[in-house]
Here is the input.
Amino acid sequence: MVLSLKSERLKRYKDIVALLVKYGRSDFVNQADLTSAERLSRKQTSTADEKAHELAADLEALGPTFIKLGQLLSTRGDLLPEPYLEALARLQDQIEPFPYEEVERIVSSELGGRISKLFIDFNTEPAAAASLAQVHRATMRDGRAVVVKVQRPNIREQIVEDLEALAQVAEFVDAHTEIGKRYEFTNMLADLRSSLLHELDFQREAGNLHKLRKSLREFENLVIPEPVDDYTTSRVITMDYIPGKKITDVSPLRLMELDTRELAEEIFRAYLKQLLVDGFFHADPHPGNVFITDDDRIGLLDLGMVAHIAGNFRENLLRLLLAISEGRGDEAADVSIKMGEPKPNFDKHDFEHRTAQLVAQHEDAALEQIHAGKVVLEIQRNAAECWFRLPPEFTMISKAMMNLDRVVYVLDPTFDPNAVIRHEATNIMVRQVVQSIEPGSILARAIEVKEFIEKLPTRVNKILDVIGNNELKIGVDAIDEKVVLDGLQKVANRITLGLVLAALIIGAALMMRVETSFRIFGYPGLPTIFFLLAAFAGIILVLSIVITDEKPKKKTGDE
Here is the structure.
C-alpha cells in the first residue's frame, strides 16, 4: 500500500488518525486487540454517551463522506457499543445550503433550459439541505406541485477523494492489526463506496421510485412520490411533492387522530414483502425519510439507498426471522451459518451458544423491550466476535430494520413485530412459490430442459459406442494398487529376513553344546559367527525401518 503525499490527502489522513486516537481507537495503530465495546465497558455510561455524541458531531464537521460513514457505522452492532450506535443513528444529514446561483446553474445545464422557462414557480429558499443535495419546492407548467433535488457542486469529486483516503487507512488497519483482520474494514469501505456512488446517481433513484411504487401498490396507506423522468438527470431529480410532516415532528395530538396501529402494521408488512418476496428494499427508512401525509397516510421519501437480496438469501432470512419470533435459538444459529462463511478462527460452538441464548432472552418480546433490528445486530456482533463473516446484505437489512423499528415505535409503542412475522409467514411463502412459477422462471427452466434434451442423443450415442467397442472403463480412485503391492512386498521381505535371523539364532544356540577346537573368545567358533551375523543383520533391519520407511501423512482438507 502506497500512501499519497498530496496536501489534501495528507490532511484527510490527519483527520482520520485524529478520530481514531480521540475515540479510543489508537489500538488500530498500536495493534492492540481490544474492541471499543471492551474499552467502553470499563467506563461510566454517561462518559460513553458524551463520547458518542462528540463522535457524531466530529463526523458532521468532516463533511458528507464522513456523515455517511457514521450512518453506516450506526448499523455495525458488531463493531461499536450501544451508546455509539444510538448517537450515530440520530446523526443529522443537515448542513448549510449552497447558494441559489449554483442551483440555477446546475438545473439549467442539466435540464437544458432556464428555470423560469421550465417551471411556473421555483422557490429560491431550499426546503431541506443535506450533505449530498438540497431540495426546492417548485410548480411545473401543467400546475403539478413537485420538489427538485439538486446535487451539491463538486460533491462527487470530494467523496471519491475522501473514500480513497479512507480505503488506504482501512487497508493499513486490516493488514497490521488484529481488529482489522477480525472486522475487515476494507470490505466495509467497499460497501460504503458502492452505496454512496449509487446515491449520487439521481437517475438510479428515479428508477428505484418507479420500482417501489409498483411493488407496494397494494398497500393503500403508503405513498411514494412519482418522479418526472423528463426533468431528471444524474444530478437533478424532480418528483411529486407530498405534503406532510416528518413522523418525528408530528405532535401527540395529531397521532391520536390516526389509526397508528394500522399504519404501523402496514408499513411493517410492506417491508417484509420488500425483504422476503421482492428482494428489493428501501434500505434507509429512518424517521427523517418517513412522513405522515396530510391525508393520514405514510409517505416514503429518498430512495437513493436501496439493496437487493438473492432468492436463496431471502428464504434463509425468512427462516431466521421465524426462528427468532418463535424462540428457536438453535435453528436461528444454523440458518445464520448458512447465510455467511467462516473465517479461519471460527468458533462454531461459541457462535451457536451465543445465538441460542440471544434468541431465548427475547422470545415473545414486545417492541418496547427489544427491537427486531437489534436482534439482527446482536447476531452480527456474535458473528464478528466468533470470527464468522456475514454478507453485506445482512448489514443493510439490520440498518433498515433498526430504522423501521424506530418508525413503528413512534406510531405504536406496543407494536409486536414477532406476531406480524408469524402471521405473514404463510402469505410470504405462498408469494415465493408463486414467484417460482412466474413466466420468467418457467421459461428459464424450459431452456434448461431444452438444452438437456438437445444434448441427450449425442451423449447416449457416445456411451453406446464405447460399450459396443468394449472400451467402457470405470475408474475408481479408492486406492493406489502399486503402492499397496510395494508395501506388501516390503512386508514379505522383512518377514522372510526375520525368519532367517531367527533360524540363525536358534541354530547357533543348539550348536553351542557341540565341543570343537575352533573357538572365538572362548566360545565355539561357528555358533559365535552365526550370532554375530544375526546381530549385524538385525541392526541393518532396524536402521532400514527407522530411516527409509515413510511416516503416514496427515490428510488435508482438500484430500
